[in-house]
Amino acid sequence: MGSLDTNPAAYAAFAADVEGFQPLNADDVRSYLHKAVDFVYDYYKSVESLPVLPGVEPGYLLRLLQSAPPSSSAPFDIAMKELREAVVPGMTHWASPNFFAFFPATNSAAAIAGELIASAMNTVGFTWQAAPAATELEVLALDWLAQLLRLPASFMNRTAGGRGTGGGVILGTTSEAMLVTLVAARDAALRRSGSNGVAGITRLTVYAADQTHSTFFKACRLAGFDPANIRSIPTGAETYYGLDPARLLEAMQADADAGLVPTYVCATVGTTSSNAVDPVGAVADVAARFNAWVHVDAAYAGSACICPEFRHHLDGVERVDSISMSPHKWLMTCLDCTCLYVRDTHRLTGSLETNPEYLKNHASDSGEVTDLKDMQVGVGRRFRGLKLWMVMRTYGAGKLQEHIRSDVAMAKTFEDLVRGDDRFEVVVPRNFALVCFRIRPRKSSIIAGEAEAERANRELMERLNKTGKAYVAHTVVGGRFVLRFAVGSSLQEERHVRSAWELIKKTTTEIVAGEDHK
Amino acid sequence: MGSLDTNPAAYAAFAADVEGFQPLNADDVRSYLHKAVDFVYDYYKSVESLPVLPGVEPGYLLRLLQSAPPSSSAPFDIAMKELREAVVPGMTHWASPNFFAFFPATNSAAAIAGELIASAMNTVGFTWQAAPAATELEVLALDWLAQLLRLPASFMNRTAGGRGTGGGVILGTTSEAMLVTLVAARDAALRRSGSNGVAGITRLTVYAADQTHSTFFKACRLAGFDPANIRSIPTGAETYYGLDPARLLEAMQADADAGLVPTYVCATVGTTSSNAVDPVGAVADVAARFNAWVHVDAAYAGSACICPEFRHHLDGVERVDSISMSPHKWLMTCLDCTCLYVRDTHRLTGSLETNPEYLKNHASDSGEVTDLKDMQVGVGRRFRGLKLWMVMRTYGAGKLQEHIRSDVAMAKTFEDLVRGDDRFEVVVPRNFALVCFRIRPRKSSIIAGEAEAERANRELMERLNKTGKAYVAHTVVGGRFVLRFAVGSSLQEERHVRSAWELIKKTTTEIVAGEDHK
Fold first, then answer.
1. Which residues, renumbered to this chain, carry the PTM N6-(pyridoxal phosphate)lysine (chains A, B) (predicted)?
2. Among A221, A321, A207, A217, which Cα is nearest to A261's?
3. Is the complex ipTM more than 0.90?
């Protein structure tokens, strides 16, 4: 029994008791949703003043709320009260304009409204027939986004000439996009290497830069690749931590010479750690020599490529096999929304298709429709396309580009501020809206070496985060501990960036003064 | 350019243009959401009168909406107008009370409101630190549900004695639950069979009844199991299509004798095809002889086990390794929500854990918290626990049980109606709220044999579905084509079930008369 346990008897009687239990009574739905909308409105109005990172200890919520499920019903107000009093104080506020950690989870009015409607319609679009409009709107939204990204027609579901050979699907995470393409590439490599069943899997090799998200290495293991065959190609400052095609070629050639089968290369446009960019076209050219699948992970930075000035980061994409990017990161579409495009849909569905009797129907049999279950891990799926379509329909290319550019401009402002203070350094060139910086070691200073710099920067991060006025995360680049300042939370304005900078300067001064007295 | 293309100039100017683009302006959010709530209210009030299965042709929506993304912004009303006029007419209405296909996607006011708030907060809870309250509320909701299901404490995150060794996670689909447990079982089997890397994978075998959902066989392939080692154990009418433990033992023993490594058994409680129930305890006993992982897929029927009268279907669950069930099917929680419980969390995280520098934090290092990313395929994750917690908090065990019982009672009513008309037969015993029935072949009738029965039942299904007044799906059980009548859509009342039955009778009479004239 938690300390916030509320006595239902003190509240109005449960509304829907009169004619039996009606969980989806339209009046109740409207009433609950109006309460939820009021909460959301208040939340956005007040989130700026809430500590971004809460000062709670593990297990705090379990001590506040009752540990056993209630046996009787309670007015919805009780859940809302416990949400306000127990849950909100323990949230890390990703929606706060003072959130600069990880990558922002950008969002918009149109996306939230779209997701609400999808939740209420609650369709399960495993096949076209099970939800024709949901399937087609997802296909349309993906094709729209492909056009904004200027992807080649080979990645589109519909081209001027009718149904294309490529296509897309909306998944929950980049990891899933990696996993399903890894499996398709694995199966193709097994077939072409004449494997008896999966026996040849021990000979298949995969490649990615050492800056690639750790989830890639996990996805490889999920798909059954041998951990010993997962090549992490070292990167360095000379390529700004992007994948060096010469090193990739060397690794792939060495494996091929050893009788192994180079199967899959993952190139990243905008790494999580420091926003490094692997050269897509050059990677594709290397991989083509070995008939290996190339996937581009543009989870974060893909969104920027809707602006002509950033599109060059995707140059060569017409020669890769698949690309994924996540509008839930930087295209104002709430979680979850990862768009996967493949150049040859059949290579994916060949590995993922199922055809149980209970899902058979004329439309699927006709071959004229896309059954999206055959491009993902699971069977069931929400009405995933609605919110993404609503975002593009409402804001249009112009506002979406404005949003990207505004974030980049704010990041540039922050970068200039950092560069203007010689206690700090920007560690790698800023490509998008992420600034990797640190208090730099200086011989003349008390922060004389790398060890002292790491200690000072850790201290800076921890002090900042404890204030509740900013949340900044870290990474290690080239052996150096650096702070990641990611701009773009959807409520963020330039004043928040400037305030955070003031806080960083002030805290750094305190740290340096503290060091002086040691 | 689609036929429904709307001219933005005819609408009010875009609201947030005054001070730069504010995608999450609180006033806009409220305004958009109020429009969405009005839509949802109208939708629930009118969905009964909409054709359940739309009469649209593949590509219909692509012809209605513009094929290129808009370059400029448009008032949200335009997206809403196109939703109403182009999307809704092409939806299969899972929320319709006349929906009897597949399994219902049940829903409730509390769930939708919870999901709305989760979309607005838009946290990404990969680690505890990234969203402490979201992680802890998910853990709490899972423990509450475990108590409702009377799962043993070994599956709970928190027990009376503190943190347990087991625990749960909310995933998107049953397929993901199968995949992650298959991978954990695979890795354990590789280790104990002394495999060099994944070389031993060719010796690992997995087992499930032939009635198991096709996604299981897909998940096995995703995890790299050899298709030749996936055993589909035949079932028959003598066990009502449930798995026969003797046959399972025979298959596992034969494999073990052949030097293979029995690795994983999937038992289903409530199969998709006909709601067959595999005997959980007996399956666990057989698997234990081989040290194989046992997973229980109770996606649909697990929800019924919150009622004491259905709980016996889980007898023996204390001896299995994992169980998954999906509140998005039958516990009034909108998609997606699949709860996976494992008895030993470390067996799962051992295969799924990642620890990149940019996610490191004190809480994770302390070992005192659950980082839910290590129990799923992906890294990012929504605030998944909120809606499930709100459903239990608001309705309580009593209303949830009432909801299950009411659905089962309606299914019983339908079953009785079918049994009362000798043109029909109930093909397998009804276990939950699914009735599998058909027009039966009778020597004295024009539907004299199995071939004629299949033709007549297909005809019945197609005619029913074309009316728009009911949507019924089919399966094949024991070689017979049967109709699946799944009761429980959240707006459904007994009158809808009775109307559907009247329609079935009338249509059958027409078919039989038609056959007479052939």
1. 329
2. A207
3. yes
For residue A2, what pLDDT band results from cuts at 50, 70 and 90? low
Is CATH 3.90.1150.10 the classification given to domain B401-516?
Answer: yes
Verify whether the Cβ–Cβ distance B377 to A380 is below 8 Å.
no
Residue A409 is predicted with a pLDDT of 98
Q: Where are the domains of chain B?
A: 8-88, 123-382, 401-516
B-interface mutation test, from A18, A19, A37, most B Cβ less than 10 A away? A37
CB B474 within 8 A of CB B272: no
Contact state of B358 with A143 under an 8 Å Cβ cutoff: no
Measured CA angle at A477 (ends A476, A478), to 5 deg: 120
Please tell me the CATH code under which domain A397-516 is placed.
3.90.1150.10
Give me the residue from A101, A133, A144 closest to B91, CB to CB. A133
Whole-angstrom Cα distance, residue A203 to residue A255? Answer: 9
Establish if B335 touches chain A: CB-CB under 8 angstroms: yes
Whether A14 shows a pLDDT value over 60: the answer reads: no
* Residues of B annotated catalytic, as ranges: 358
Of all residues in chain A, the percent with pLDDT exceeding 70 is 95
Name the fold adopted by B8-88.
Answer: dopa decarboxylase, N-terminal domain (1.20.1340)
When pLDDT is averaged across residues A369-373 and rounded to a whole number, the result is 90
CA dist B497 and B437 (Å) reads: 14
Q: Which two tokens stand for residue B23?
A: 């995608």
Chain A contact for B492 (CB, 8 A cutoff): no
Please determine, for residue A250, whether its predicted confidence score (pLDDT) is greater than 90. yes
Q: Using the beta-carbon criterion (under 8 Å), do B73 and A396 form an inter-chain contact?
A: yes
Task: Determine the residue type at B91.
Answer: M
In this structure, which CATH number among 3.40.980.10, 1.20.5.170, 3.90.1170.20, 3.40.640.10 belongs to the domain B123-382? 3.40.640.10
Would you state the pLDDT for residue B3? 59
Q: What is the pLDDT of residue A358?
A: 85
A 73-92: CB under 8 A from B? 73-76, 78-79, 82-83, 86-92
Q: Which of B:413-472 have CB within 8 Å of A? A: none
Q: Are the beta carbons of A358 and B475 separated by less than 8 Å?
A: yes
Q: Which of A160-169, A300-309, A473-482, B113-122 is predicted with the least confidence, judged by mean pLDDT?
A: A160-169
Whether residues A92 and B129 touch (CB distance < 8 A) is answered with yes
Please, which residues 155-174 of chain A have a Cβ atom closer than 8 Å to chain B? 158, 172-174
Name the β-bridge partners of A340. Answer: A169, A324
Yes or no: say if B378 and A175 are a contact pair by the CB < 8 Å rule.
yes
Per-residue model confidence (pLDDT) at position A226: 98
